[in-house]
Design a protein that fits this description.
- It is a single chain.
- The chain contains eleven helices and six strands.
- By secondary structure, it is an alpha/beta fold.
- The protein has three domains: 65 residues, no CATH class; 48 residues; 173 residues, Nucleotidyltransferase, domain 5.
- It has a six-stranded mixed sheet with strand order 1-6-5-2-3-4, sandwiched between helices.
- It is elongated and about 100 Å long.
- The mean pLDDT is 85.
- This is IS481 family transposase.
Length: 335
């Protein structure tokens, strides 16, 4: 067995032990003075005399005593951050920076720092320029660079689609949570958008190619899939891409098919259709004798390959049955 790293519980245990060590070190700073003060008070020594012997005031004693009480409860040591922080006060450099940035909205802190030093005699580090830019953006004096990375907005589920929830695949029935995905394939100098649907139990696949990966293409693919599928589609599972929104989502609602959207960066939840994409990439698109040079001809060749996959290619997970044989036997058992 090959071990790539420690179990996450090991890291949690280390973090807890390290926190306790830090608490012990922090506790030792106050225990000695508080213990000596308590001992003197037990011997009826006055506060002024205790201050001289322990080297701390009465207020400091009670403050340290409270800190120890909080530490004994397991509290984290208080932050060392100063209460009063120095507020930045920009001067002439800010005015020059605003001018340079407005004239060159795509320039970052590195280029602006060089320009300020070269043309205006303002020597500022890149970090300082970056902090000034952040402050100016918050004030609305400069705009965010058009070339800056945009944060992806979280999808709002206000229509037909619903977010993904866990369900044991062993309890799923035929046609439940059919996985749909698309991949881009370039063959014979032409770019094809390969849409594919995969059924978990039977490993049945339906695929077709289109010129564009739009929601309209996904809708056309869905309508054809519903007509040709040898089983009832109970629900569909897709990634949160734009091609599976708009018209595709409306088509699912019209057909009464629940649409389940995976969380971001979780393509492994659609592992079945991803594996199907790999099968067709290796067994179909990589063939040297595949000479289709148009969407129509590629669609015809792909339909032949899909038919071979569903009716001829055996699957070990289905105990050697083909997808169509598995579906027919499942329907017979249900009846």
């Amino acid at each position: 067995m090959r071990i790539h790293g420690l179990h996450k519980n090991k890291h949690r245990l280390y973090a807890y032990a390290r926190t306790q060590d830090c608490l012990d070190v922090y506790r030792k700073r106050y225990e000695d003075g508080v213990r000596r003060w308590k001992k003197l008070k037990f011997e009826n020594v006055c506060d002024s005399r205790c201050q001289d012997i322990c080297g701390m005031s009465r207020a400091t004693y009670y403050r340290h005593k409270k800190i120890l009480k909080d530490l004994n409860k397991g509290s984290v040591p208080p932050s060392k951050k100063p209460r009063n922080l120095n507020k930045p006060h920009w001067g002439e450099a800010e005015l020059q920076l605003v001018k340079v940035r407005r004239e060159n909205p795509t320039y970052g802190k590195e280029k602006i720092a060089i320009i300020l030093k070269r043309d205006h005699g303002q020597i500022l580090s890149e970090s300082t320029v970056g902090r000034i830019l952040t402050s100016l953006k918050n004030k609305g004096l400069v705009q965010k660079s058009p070339s800056a990375l945009r944060t992806k907005r979280k999808r709002q589920f206000k229509s037909h689609a619903k977010p993904w929830t866990f369900k044991d695949y062993k309890t799923m029935t035929l046609g439940e949570r059919v996985q749909i995905d698309h991949m881009t394939v370039t063959k014979n100098g032409i770019c094809f958008k390969h849409f594919q649907a995969w059924e978990r139990g039977s490993k049945f696949i339906y695929a077709s190619v289109y010129a564009h990966a739009k929601s309209s293409s996904a809708k056309r693919f869905l309508l054809k899939f519903v007509k040709q599928a040898p089983f009832k589609i109970q629900s569909i599972q897709v990634e949160g891409r734009s091609e599976f929104m708009a018209e595709f989502e409306e088509a699912c609602a019209e057909l009464g098919i629940p649409l389940i959207v995976l969380p971001p960066q979780k393509p492994t939840y659609n592992g079945g259709v991803e594996r199907g994409n790999r099968i067709f990439r290796e067994e179909f698109y990589n063939q040297n004798n595949l000479l289709a040079d148009s969407i129509a001809s590629m669609r015809f060749e792909l339909s032949q390959a899909v038919s071979k996959y569903n009716s001829y290619r055996p699957h070990r997970a289905a105990k050697g049955l083909t997808p169509l044989h598995y579906i027919h036997s499942h329907i017979l058992e249900a009846s």
